[in-house]
């Protein structure tokens, strides 16, 4: 067991020495250390502090830490300085799926196989937990994000790509949920390999992306929408210029220049303490259209940006991708209509349905099912793909892939744009 009181003490010592070195460099006119240089220097300082501690323990007649204990202390100090403190071991565990924290000592972890377990505290107090989140908020994303009594809600992307959502003062104790980004660089072949999509669905979606069809990925919370979107984005040729728009940076397409060398990632900016400086999702979508995009990718539609995005899809920005919360592929159209009614344009339902019919080509529905209580595991799979065929007072659509015997989508109806898809390698059963 790591001694967290020692970690806290040594973190302060190393942090003070690091800050002192920064001041010395600045006074001597030296360039500031890069992030990686600072990490390397911090590792040297950690070794120095631990060596001093070992000598002190020997001088006092006590047993110094073993090599294994020193290694654990070093990892803990480094995580406290540059990572996420006591959360780091959970984030380093590849099998951890989600982390839910209801106060510093109520930590619940769900694993990839569907199991859930309660884990050790991640802080000594709720105040320390809030401080940890505040530090993360100050250095994550493109701009500092406040987390305090005036701003009790927070969404951000952690350094490893995981998605953090936190609240305080609207709950008895601070509550935090972390959704792991277990598959950062993910391809269609990966999703076929783990059963998320069948080979037929994989070929269909690859062809749809190549044919520059506009795709809306729908599903419930934590169903795997973002992972599927990443895989679809990796079907886009590397020569295209991509612009992503998100509430909090999560997609990370710009993190893999070997796949997408020309990416601009936009992140919504929240208002400051005076209520000024906000840049909304809708504004960013509009701005993205002036940045010479080949495709615009909206990470998650949750509000009035839907009208701007649909307009963008009808103005020559074909091949756009987005995600939305919904309980079925058919429900997506009503969900979009609800968001459009809330937008500044106040689009009536009829007008929204016409806009949907002109903008979206396919809705891909992905769902999750936890069969752990039956001896199975957590499954995520595409169960339905719906093609938008037009509008006649309401959106006309056909389910071209419907749930098969095991729930996974299987071919169900002919696709109207089959010739276009066939030009990109998709053929199925003579359709």
TrEMBL record:
Occurrences of domain Bacterial type II secretion system protein E (ranges): 87-344
Q: Name one GO molecular function term.
A: ATP hydrolysis activity
Q: Entry's Pfam families?
A: T2SSE (PF00437)
Gene3D superfamilies in UniProt: 3.30.450.380, P-loop containing nucleotide triphosphate hydrolases
Coiled-coil residue spans? none
Q: Which PANTHER family match?
A: TWITCHING MOTILITY PROTEIN PILT, TYPE II_IV SECRETION SYSTEM ATPASE
Q: Which family does it belong to?
A: Belongs to the GSP E family.
Identify this protein by name: CpaF family protein
Q: What is the lineage of its organism?
A: Bacteria, Bacillati, Actinomycetota, Actinomycetes, Streptosporangiales
């Amino acid at each position: 067991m790591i001694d967290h009181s020692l970690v806290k003490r040594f973190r302060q010592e190393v942090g003070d020495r690091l800050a002192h070195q920064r001041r010395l460099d600045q006074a001597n006119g030296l360039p500031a250390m890069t992030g990686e240089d600072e990490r390397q220097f911090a590792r040297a300082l950690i070794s120095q502090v631990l060596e001093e501690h070992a000598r002190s323990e020997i001088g006092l007649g006590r047993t110094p830490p073993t090599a294994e204990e020193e290694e654990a202390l070093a990892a803990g100090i480094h995580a406290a300085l540059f990572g996420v403190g006591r959360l780091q071991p959970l984030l380093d565990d590849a099998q951890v799926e989600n982390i839910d924290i209801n106060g510093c000592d109520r930590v619940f972890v769900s694993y990839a196989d569907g199991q859930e377990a309660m884990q050790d505290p991640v802080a000594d107090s709720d105040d320390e937990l809030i401080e940890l989140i505040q530090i993360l908020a100050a250095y994550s994303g493109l701009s500092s994000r406040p987390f305090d009594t005036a701003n009790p809600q927070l969404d951000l992307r952690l350094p490893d790509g995981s998605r953090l959502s936190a609240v305080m003062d609207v709950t008895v104790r601070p509550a935090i949920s972390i959704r792991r980004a277990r598959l950062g660089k993910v391809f269609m072949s990966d999703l076929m390999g783990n059963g998320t999509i069948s080979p037929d669905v994989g070929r269909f979606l690859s062809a749809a992306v190549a044919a520059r069809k506009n795709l809306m990925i729908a599903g419930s919370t934590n169903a795997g929408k973002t992972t599927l979107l990443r895989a679809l984005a990796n079907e886009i040729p590397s020569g295209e210029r991509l612009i992503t728009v998100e509430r909090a940076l999560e997609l990370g397409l710009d993190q893999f220049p070997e796949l997408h060398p020309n990416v601009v990632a936009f992140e919504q900016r929240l208002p400051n303490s005076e209520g000024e400086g906000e840049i909304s999702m809708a504004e960013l979508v509009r701005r993205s259209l002036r940045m010479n995009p080949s495709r615009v990718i909206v990470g998650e539609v949750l509000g009035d940006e839907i009208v701007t995005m649909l307009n963008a899809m009808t103005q020559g920005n074909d091949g756009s991708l987005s995600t939305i919360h919904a309980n079925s592929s058919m429900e997506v159209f009503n969900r979009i209509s609800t968001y459009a009614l809330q937008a500044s344009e106040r689009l009536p339902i009829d007008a929204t349905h016409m806009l949907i019919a002109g903008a979206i080509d396919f809705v891909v529905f992905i769902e999750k099912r936890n069969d752990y209580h039956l001896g199975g595991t957590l499954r995520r799979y595409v169960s339905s793909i719906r093609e938008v065929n037009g509008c006649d007072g309401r959106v006309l659509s056909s389910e071209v892939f419907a749930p098969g015997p095991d729930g996974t989508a299987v071919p169900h109806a002919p696709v109207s744009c089959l010739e276009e898809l066939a030009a990109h390698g998709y053929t199925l059963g003579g359709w």
